[in-house]
Amino acid sequence: MPTTTQEARESVAAASRHLAAAGLLIGTAGNVSVRVDNWVAVTATGTVLADTTPDLVTIVDLEGTVLQGTLAPTSELELHLGIYRGFHTGAVVHTHAPKSTAAGCVLDELPVLHYQQLLLGGATPVVPFHPFGTPELAEAVRQALPGKQACLLANHGAITHAPTLEQAVAHALLLEWACTLHQDATALGTPRPLTPEQQTAVIEVALKTGYGTPKPIESQHK
Asked: Where is the Class II aldolase/adducin N-terminal domain (predicted)?
């Protein structure tokens, strides 16, 4: 995690370019932030995310007061700050990713079709529509996120958060993959979600085996 304002601005800029290259951030639509102690580095409003540089990232406190930078922060600042105030989290990513946005135009909830979605907290809720940048949207997102690492915004986009910016970015990519999977499965027929019992069984196996974490090869010689 970054510790200085310059490191934070660099990490937010790099994450924005990464997400744009992956097709999750289009033009000026979307925003990224990371929290360090009692301040937040967040993308500035009206900037092209694919071209984000550290000077296009603004530093604010948890009340939204600008501490460093020359550009106004994103219009979705209150959405980011609401998540930081309500949850012990270190980074927030908001995208208008195509498949995630499409899912939010149709579904009331994205069901768990694949066990990797458990990394996002299971089924992903869809927040009712509110205009961007409004207190109502920020509050609706805050209410949807307990126990979840992601939510979809009806007819708008997606939100992910995590302890680190790298994890929040990974969650955004995973959510887009899950929405793509749901769309592909629906084209073939009626999707078959994992039952609560199947989800619990996966969690038990993952905890037992340390699934998803690198492990050294154990020596076969005693």
From this structure: 10-183
